[in-house]
Amino acid sequence: MVSQKKGIKGFFKNQAVAAIVKVIIALLFGLFVLSMTSAALVFFSGPPELMQVKPWLIGFITHSTMVAVSIIIMLILSKGKLNTYGFKITKHVSLKQIIPLSLGIGFIGALIGSFIFIENSASTEAFSFVQTVVFIWFYASICEEVLTRGLIQGLLKPLIKHGFFLFKLRISLPVLVGALFFALMHTALLTTGMNSGAVFNIVLFAFILGIIAGYHREKTGSLIPAVIVHMFFNVGGFCAGLLIQLFKTRI
């Protein structure tokens, strides 16, 4: 009986170690992708004057590198089967549920960030409306979801049995890790001079976004719902920004 108990303990201990190793490997892949985006920005960016005239160019370089490197890694690891990383069509997208939720959370996050914390960075104010739609709502949403919910969450799919319940919803370990990685990506905003409180607010709501996007990515097996969640989260934040500007001009 004693040896049997030791065997059971050893089995669960080995499972825990294997899970930790898989998480570390997934995070290392994610960090490698981010390091490549930084290297690409240094290599491809032009004079500082050009970056000021065309601020969208920075995002285009980094996000293009992000999605390209992520897809290359996924192609190598899956031997060309990208559908295992969420690249497939799904008909099980509950738009009536995810669109209002994403809009609302993005809206609330932006309101809190603007009224409670003082942001001292240019943020996306230098973007025109068309650039905002193309590069933030669509392009950034797609590229960031390919990295976090595609590569990282896809790599951790074998750990889906590990998780916990939150408000009767089961949040798996892959969803949690992907959301944490996505949230912590935004700590890079500290290097832009943004107020630490504002950055914390962004990280917090990015984590909430990551949980929602990851949950629907796992539920449907597709990246499409995650991209939709991400996109309408950004739309909600944009709408809040417009409301805040209108409020300030009337004061």
User: What would the average pLDDT be, to the nearest integer?
Assistant: 87
Intertermini distance: 76 Å
Rg is 20 Å
How many E strands? 2
Categorize the overall geometry. Answer: globular
Total domain units: 1
Strand order of the largest sheet: 1-2
Order of helices and strands: HHHHHEEHHH
Please count the helical segments. 8
Strand content: under 5%
Low-confidence stretches: none
Structural class: mainly alpha
- How much helicity do the residues have? over 70%
Please summarize the sheet with the most strands: 2 strands, antiparallel
What does it look like?
The structure is a single chain. This protein has helices at about 1-45, 50-55, 55-80, 95-115, 130-155, 175-185, 195-220, 225-250; strands at about 165, 170. The protein has about 250 residues and is mainly α. A hairpin with a 2-residue loop joins strand 1 (about 165) and strand 2 (about 170). Strands 1-2 form a two-stranded antiparallel ribbon. The chain has one domain (about 1-250).
